[in-house]
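Sequence in, structure out.
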Amino acid sequence: MFANAAAYGMSLVAARLLPPAEFGSFGALLSLSIVASTVAIACQTVAARRVAAHPGATAAHEGEVRTLGLASSGVLLAVALVLTPPSSILLHVSGLAAGAVLTSVAVSVTGFTALGVLQGRQSYVRFGVAYSALAGLRAVGTIVGAAVTPTVEAAAVGMLAGTVVGTVAAVACGRRAAPRRRPPGDAVRELGRNVGSMLGLYVFINLDVVLARVYLAPHASGTYAVGSLVSKIAFFLPMSVITVLFPRMAASATHGYRRLAITATAAIGLVFTAVCALGAGIVLDLAGGDAYAPLRPHLWMFALQGSIFAVAQAAMLTRLASRRARAALPVWLTTVALALGVTLFWHGSVVEIVTVSLVAATVLVAALASDRGARETTPSDDGTPVAEHPSSRT
């Protein structure tokens, strides 16, 4: 919970320290960082699943996933260098800001791999300490940078510095003697499948704020970024549910944990949406202040948007826990539909863009829920579908 609070606090403080136009740039960069972090999250899910599924051979699998995490971090760093110039042009930000944010994501991959190892061991105290260090120091660095100089460049450089220190701390928390081993081919393939699936999802849930940055005026895009902040709170609020249940889903052939993950996520989202609808003024005061007052009657839409995003992620992760990525196709198709809808038709206001995103998110959840075939089998580590015994259903 502290880690999530640190992430929210970072955005809330940045919204007050940075002028609306600068925060619009910062919000777009945050969305870009979340999309890029799919590699880190994929490494975490692979590490957690493999460690949880092999409780009798954790040392060997920990060595494999740590090597996989280091290699992935190096690859992502190279990709960040290549993507910095086009990202700078697309988002209308400096190369320094875009490069610092993308580099911070590449650095964090090894930290998230360590989190996955702790998650797979179900060592939740150490997991909490490591995650708090990683997220907390990232937030502190960002806030200090923005406080010293209220520009998006200063905030981005601060984020990079905090992420480096936080990653070192997270790796230290998860450290345990284990031989470094070359990851087997199936681990690499699993990572590739997870990246493909999670990348599609994270592109989808962050595309609207990037499109708002492109099509709306600077102040309006800043307003949308504050609404997106509320959406991200709704999205990450149920994360502890998945953190606890993911290794259990990976180790169990029953569907009870999977249903519980989706149901609990939806319930938390509905409560948060109701809070934002009834107390929009209070929530907006905390999120951005009077400069974003026009957003008040529409704040609940962003809360609902983030809640639906969270349900989609829960459905996706239930499949990754059993090594399925069949949800990737509907995610990417829905992403393309959202991009076309906003680009070609509905991009004239904050309300238009968030409405299109809401409709697309609802369609995505319906598509994921209709994938009945994913409920019938639980694949083994070698990819062979293993039929679930009827008596194991809950």
